[in-house]
Amino acid sequence: MFRYYIWLALRSLRRNPMLTALMVAAIGLGIGASMTTLSLFRAMSGDPIPQKSAQLFTPLIDNWGPDQREKTGEPGQDMLSYTDAIALMNLHAAPRQAAMYATGFAVMPTDPTQNPFQADARATGADFFAMFDVPFKYGAPWSAADDEARADVVVLGRKLNDKLFGGANSVGKTVNLDNHDYRVVGVLDDWSPQPRMYDVMDQTFGEVEALFLPFNTAIGRQMDIWGNNNCAGPTVVDPGFEGHMRSECTWVQFWAELNTAEQVQHYRTLLDGYAAEQQHNGRFHWAPLTRLYDVRKWFDVQHVVPDESRVMVVVSFGFLFVCLVNAVGLMLAKFMTRASEIGVRRAIGANRRAVFTQCLVETGVIGLAGGLVGLALTAVGLAGMRGLLSKDMAALTHLDLVDVLVTVALAVLAAMLAGLYPTWRATQVQPAWQLKAN
Amino acid sequence: MHFGPILSAMRRNKVGAFLIALQMALTLAILCNALFIIHQRVVLMARPSGVDEANTFSLSNQWVGSPEQIGAMIRGDLAALRGLPGVVDAYATNAYPLRGGGWSEGVSLAPNQKHSTAHTARYFTDDHALNALGAHLIAGRNFTSDEIGERSERDKARPGVIIVTKALGEKLFPDGSALGKTVYVEDQPIVIVGIVDMLKTPWVSNAWAEKFVENSMLDPYIFIAKQYSYIVRAQPGQVDAVMQTAQKKLFEVNRNRVIEKVRSYAQIRADAYRNDRALAIILGTVSTALLAVTAFGIVGLTSFWVTQRRRQIGVRRALGATRRAILAYFQTENGIIASVGALLGMALAVGLNLWMVKALEMQRLDLLYVLCGAVAVMMLGQFAVLWPALRAASTPPALATRAS
Fold first, then answer.
1. Together in a domain, B138 and B166
2. Measured between CB atoms, which of A178, A315, A336 is closest to B30?
3. Which of A35, A260, B24, B125 is the most exposed place for a label (fewest CB within 10 A)?
4. Residue B266 belongs to a domain
5. For A192-226, how does the pLDDT look when each residue is reduced to its tens digit (9 = 90+)?
6. How much is the pTM?
């Protein structure tokens, strides 16, 4: 019976190609626009580490005082000062933890006729890689001892390893960065968390750094801070990098892995205890204000998904709704012109349920066709987005399997929903009345 | 025109009329808000930066290793750049208008002030900067070459002189008397010696910085850092050529550097406003599709009604109704539906905007948009109904006499 209904639907759609085209186009356009923006929104609001996002936490400590807080009373800073980051590291209160900051190098190519090139880098602790489930292609992270000893070791990102060593296993080889030799201990496999969860302040989306080196090695070399650096509050900043390290400027991101509720609770207590101690010994002149956010909460606090993206979603779903209202009208018209045909079917024995199913199948077919058109338009829309947005966002403008399924399902569902009222009206056709009229 | 027959016909087709009215209302609501946002972004993007954008470009310079004599190296580079044919002037800086990242600072009227009086972008420049940017000095004077010091990012401030934008001067001294006044930056006394009419901050598309987007101050310091930018202004029409020769020249002077982000101001502007442009284009595209869908929807539904009522129309024609009267009938019908839709749509538009103001930090909708949108949607309806109405009007009166 179902196949017969499909056949009927196709026949009926062919009979009135203009109206069919209008319906399919309306649904296709609506779906295309809304799925383009929704796909981008989904990519932006995605969880790059779903298996662990509830176990990774970033702490904040108010080291500036009440004058610098947000209007809501929340801390004004989104990073830690070097002083606080080191103090937290030394508490060893989490199974894994890492302080980090963005920096960079001039890479000297092995071929001396080539010009040096720029590579951004992340200075971080050895735990960083295990904490964020970073995949390695060759080698392994450096050790905590390497970090302690300020060893000249690096982990290369895959792209940089391709560029310098043609993709070969470069573990044990040296690279020259800003006239210093560093030993390669590991090479990453492809790794592209979106958003870049560990540092959404400096760059929310896009590629991860080209290479990684121990936090203390970078500090020892006084490597420039390439990321945000906020100095506020009663800040006395002494000259030089060391003065900056002692200052209340915040520029260090900090992450800790806490696996149980007790660990989280314990960590919160420790944070408050630390801040209270700072108040006690005169560094803070205010009651402790600390925060501990997991990945998802942190994305909310940091407003990772821009309002522009939300506006686009709202407007395009509004558009989809208009398209559906449009489709309701057109389907109503279509089914009404067929009142006599339905009358005949009813008269020769089809019950209301059969008519209902038949009409619903027809709307489903329209939805499917609209969904396919919508899918094509979504692909076009995302390609257009790629041209409009910055390169960092390019990774966000791809259709994944879920997008495809959602698109088609949404279209079919939307069409059937839109067809509900016209279908119901069709079932109300009085067979006798129709036959008489003819 | 008699409304009676139209209304009674509509009563027999409540759902159809309601659907068209609803569609028009939603179209109006979305259209007003979309156009309002587009207009805002277009205005934002059209703002001048204060730079002679057509002839200016920037490049980022990064030294290899940790050279000791960066100050001397910068001066050497600048001499080489300024000597290039086609170059008007050049200077080195930490940041520039529309760059995206930079240094913001609080300026106070007294030392140790709890809250600074004004927020501003801070540019480290020299006596060539105003010429290289094409900025207009409207009061006071430029820096002199012997005022130019050196300062690294991690240095402490020293007493000195600055040039500020008109907007910053007025924010600090609302009576307009900023020139010659002493202000405090990093708790050091600084004298305002010059005022330029405009220089935007590096952050032009950023809610946080929007409040001080016109506030900039120029410090007479060569910025001593491993990484910084050169701004070069070329003779009219020569910017593309100079972009190439400048890089070549710099590598000639010293190979131990990385040159990145060589961007003309057109590129800098495009990068700075990329998201605004994207939003405007996407909303524009959706709005166009929206108008098309609504128009075709009206065409489709009205055509259906016309087909349904062909006999009725034939009878009217046979009884003496002119083509004009039939045309007017459908136009009036659409006009009535559109008026209801427009009324509903105006309320929806304001409602949608209020929600967006609350949830998405948008601005309040200008009511003029709602009115213009209502007129536009009603005109759209009249336009869309024209073809089916003409078809209806061409119904021959003889149809009434034929059995269907």
1. yes
2. A315
3. A260
4. no
5. 898 999 998 888 888 899 999 999 999 999 999 99
6. 0.88
